[in-house]
Design the sequence.
């Protein structure tokens, strides 16, 4: 059985009716469906809360992504110093931090 086999078109009306019952009275549906619908609501609340991310959190995320991409430039891989690397992209002032 595939992971989401139950989400086929013929079952959508049933799932929707179960969800409407869950909204009226969570105890009126099977406990497994109740947990499923609780998970759906939890995910919806998370996605709505994603809009409340602060500017600093975005700056930190940008810093993390930049270090993941360019952090290797800070590594001392050239003991003879034959190549000069510009690591200014990693300065904290670029991220308002």
Sequence:
């Amino acid at each position: 059985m595939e992971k989401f086999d139950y989400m086929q078109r013929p079952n959508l009306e049933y799932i929707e009716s179960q969800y409407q019952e869950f909204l009226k009275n969570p105890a009126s549906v099977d406990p497994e469906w109740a947990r499923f619908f609780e998970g759906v609501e939890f995910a919806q609340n998370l996605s709505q809360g994603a809009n409340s991310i602060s500017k600093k959190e975005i700056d930190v995320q940008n810093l993390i992504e930049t270090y993941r991409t360019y952090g290797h430039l800070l590594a001392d891989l050239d003991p003879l110093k034959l190549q000069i690397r510009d690591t200014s992209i990693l300065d904290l002032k670029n991220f308002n931090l």
